[in-house]
Amino acid sequence: MNLFEFLKIVILGITEGITEFLPISSTGHLLIFEQILRPECLQDEHFAEMFTVVIQMGAVLAVLLIYFRRLWPLGFTPDRKICIKGPKLYLWLKIAVACVPVMTFGILFDPLVDSLFHGRASMIAVMITLIFYGIVFLVIEHYQKDSVPNYTTLGQIPMKMALYIGCFQILAMIPGTSRSGITIIGAMLLGASRGVATEFTFFLEIPTIFGASLLKLVKFRFDFDGMQYAILLAGMIVAFLVAYVTVSWMIEYIKKHDFKAFGRYRIGLGLLILFFLIIFQ
Question: How many domains does the chain have?
Fold first, then answer.
């Protein structure tokens, strides 16, 4: 691989790191940039599919690092004995319950979804979902701007609500939906504050993405050569570094702002894709 082709992989890693935890669809952006850059190493459709999913693990590792203390359920008693912290363990239980719908649906219908959305069909799906959920964000923020959320801490989220939030993730299997975006929308519609919806989304993506990546690796039986493994690793490392900065920024952003800017961005990008689909049909 020459330097120019390697830079294309770096750009895709940066794209993933920026977009994975923003409600603007990382998969959609990766599909767009893959069409623009056309990296030689991703001309194999199967490997390109694998790259798009597995590279997300790098971004998830950034969340694990940032929130490690809040998520690690083990601690020590005053006499230095290992103990399990109940609230954190209960949080992980809610995360696990929330993952059940999308994991089940993914195992059963992942091949069907892959067959429906590829090539031009995937770009059309990205265009539609970007615009549709962009409008949804604007509508939700408009009608909930003066409402008081029912759940302002993660501990207040009941188990049943965690399951309902997880059901929204199934929609993210359609390209362009945005896993983080649809989860935030679902949590806010169910009464969570903007901050709680965002943090629960971050946590929920950890097992979801690792599970999806493992499913893809098993599907393709780890059948890659050394260069392809190096490409995956490079993309993951870049995604990790950029995602660390992005998540840290996002945590501060939602303390003072709503999601209208992301809604407008989605609509604008969707219309731009529509323009190019018409011009280059």
Answer: 1
